[in-house]
Amino acid sequence: VMDFEDIYRLMTYALLIAVFCFFLQHGRNLFDVSLYSLISFRDSYSPFESHYFAAPSINCCAFFSYYRKNKALSMLSFIFVLMTFKRPQIVAAIVFLLLPFFVDPNKMVKKSTHFLMCCGVIAGTVIWYFLLLPEMEWVVELLTGQSAQIFTSGRSGVLRELVDSGYRYGGLGSTSVSGNSGIEMDLVAFMLEMSLPVMAWFVFAFASVSGRRIYTVVVMIYRLLSAMTGSGLYNVTGVLLLYLFFGSVNYLQPDVLKKTERRKRWIRIKFR
Fold first, then answer.
1. What is the mean pLDDT of each successive set of 10 residues along the chain, which is 272 residues long?
2. pTM (predicted TM-score)
3. Distances (CA, A) of 176 to 126, 130, 172, 250
């Protein structure tokens, strides 16, 4: 029901408002040069790290790295991801930024490849779950050089408590109730709360929404891998902005994009 220009304007508002609120959160610290020396990618530490703005930053980055008519917004969205300092998101933002230089972002991925990617995410979630069980944590330490507790920022400990409590299939959101705190690994939580087939159905449904263009598939895979090891699917800005992006890419024709990009209306949002 929305024109592309309306979606573009809303994404612009979302980015600018999020950046403004990020400045309100950190205030003068952003201008303290000495704090930047404390940033450590290896230790996953930054005085500016923000889980509040992690989702809008990476979703806006995905959008403005695809639609590059305004270079300032594209660079602002990329820098915003760097400032919120979530390591997987930084890697993803670099991929989003560079991908169009190497491949046609609108080239379609084969259905079979798309299917196998989804199967890989499902299998990866199951493997990740078993690796975080107490008897397998030594594998994580061998691969990462850190204990599972440290590598997962405490998530493995919460999962262990949940498993030790005898929890089994309590319905959506029940792991937070039973364990008194969320395990913050969305796909693992879906599998525990509603069974493996339901989690698999969600993965295929999400992949269907994203479409099969190379760029959206990359964004989809990043988001599912992020949901496997972290959280965010319950975050409105984490899902709504992402669906706006998928919709604008998959359902608006190129001639419509060229036409609407030439028109600039920044005050009124028009719905069909």
1. 86 94 82 70 70 88 93 94 87 93 92 95 94 83 77 80 79 70 85 92 93 94 90 78 90 55 45 41
2. 0.83
3. 20, 20, 9, 35
